[in-house]
Amino acid sequence: MKTYDIVVLGGGPGGYVAAIKAAQLGAKVALIEKEVVGGICLNHGCIPTKTLLKNAKVYKTIKHASDYGVVLGGDVSFDWSLMLKRKDLVVKKLTMGVGGLLKKNGVEVISGLGKVLSPTKIEVNGETIETKNLILATGASPIIPPIPGLKEAYEKKIAVTSRELLQIADAPKKLVIIGGGVIGVEFATIFSSLGSEVTIIEKLDGIVPMMDDDIRTQYAKILKKDGITIFVNAEVKAVNGHEVTYSFDGKDEKISADTILVSVGMRPNSQGLEVLNLKMDRAAVATDEHLETSVKGVYAIGDLNGKYMLAHVASAEGLVAAEYIMGKKDAKMRYDRVPNAVYGHPEIASVGLTEKEAKAQGLTYKVSTFPLQASGKALADNEKDGFIKLIVSEQYKEIIGAHILSYNASDLIAELGVTMTLEGTAYEIAHTIHPHPTLSEIVMEAAHGAVDKPIHM
Ligand code: FAD
């Protein structure tokens, strides 16, 4: 029987990063993957959506070429099949790259469905392999809620999850999106930019509920200005073929769609792990700060533990689990500085507490905001929608929350994450010379505002 120091089950951003790190630290590692390495993120999530968002942005920009003094000869159109082709090429390049990295680092990749027999034995392709440690990284799958008629619409391919929508033959003319979370709004931006009529139906009182209230209120206004219809406090009651019935404002309303995207959340892929008798938190596997489960030597990382369903968290957890197993006993996760992003035109990015959370924790804090309208770079780029909001402690001006609504917000947020890791304050950011003209100056200006006053406002 083949034996390993570590077997990793699932080759997504959690599993493949854990496998590479463990191998780099000297472990004999096998990674079992039933589809393609890269997981949901590279194959059906983060990367394909960002590629399509870029396609959509290029189309939208060209349609508004005259705003930039560019004169076009005729009508502008797009070819959806070519957009899908570009997406597939980007995905292939990245997944091949991951395959190469695994090989180079000496990880044995086993293609097949892994069946866990015990904490130390896994069956794959009819063979049983043995391991000292097991890292579970099986990810999560979209939830199809028990709405009458939805399952039937899904079987007829009228209702789809993000995975099917990323392969759809034609861009839908009318798209109804059930759920205004990160995935829902991302697809809303892609297809509305391409001219689809998009409606979001959200059960809660606003879209992207995990974001700061000021940011998400402004964001919803931008989406509406871009032609996306949003119903909040609205609940889908039934689906009948192409027709969606939802309650809104005390009444039942109907709307028809070519395609219905179901994006109400993900459920951890914990089926098949029952034999391990792990402590669970509903469908998620419970873990400690080292990602170890209730069974010694068995770890659960990424979407499977349901803490943060984000690729960068899965990878960070993969590193911690690998390091901990390999003897770095101080390796542990810090979940209070996880950056969060919503991708679109513009983006939202945040790290730390929202103002509501700061209030609920009874913190004394100061808020400083700075608008994109006052940024020379944003004006030059013709990207005026948005602002930054810094939440700092009243006494020392330590950064406790940062929220950005802007193009490229997801890139800007890293500076604030680093500042928080260093327990830095708004003083350090304000006194750090930021290059001009750049969007990063909005971070410096907001920091000036937190300690005194911004210069350019
Ligand atoms: P996964 O990436 O789900 O990987 C799990 C892997 O395990 C899969 O490859 C699967 O085939 C394999 N597997 C499962 N069971 C077995 C088995 N028994 N045997 C063998 N193999 C098995 N996150 C971000 O941070 N940023 C984004 O922009 C972003 N965009 C997203 C967009 C969409 C549309 C979606 C759906 C998700 C997005 N996410 C994003 C979330 C991100 O994709 C996940 O958080 C991330 O992929 C989780 O990584 P993971 O390693 O835990 O699991």
Can you describe what's shown?
With 457 residues, the chain is α/β, with parallel strands linked by helices. It has helices at residues 15-24, 39-44, 46-63, 80-104, 150-155, 162-165, 182-193, 213-225, 311-325, 355-360, 376-380, 409-421, 426-431, 441-451; strands spanning 3-9, 29-33, 108-111, 115-118, 121-124, 127-136, 140-142, 159-160, 174-178, 197-201, 229-231, 235-240, 243-248, 251-256, 259-262, 266-268, 280-281, 284-285, 298-300, 340-342, 347-352, 365-371, 387-393, 399-406. The strands form six sheets. Strands 1, 2, 3, 4, 5, 6 and 19 form a seven-stranded mixed sheet that branches. It has a five-stranded parallel sheet with strand order 8-15-9-10-11. Strand 10, helix 8 and strand 11 form a beta-alpha-beta unit. Helix 1 (15-24) runs parallel beside helix 9, helix 3 (46-63) packs antiparallel against helix 4 and helix 3 runs parallel beside helix 7. The model has no long low-confidence stretch (mean pLDDT 98). The site of flavin-adenine dinucleotide (FAD) has 35 residues, from strand 2, helix 2, helix 3 and helix 9.
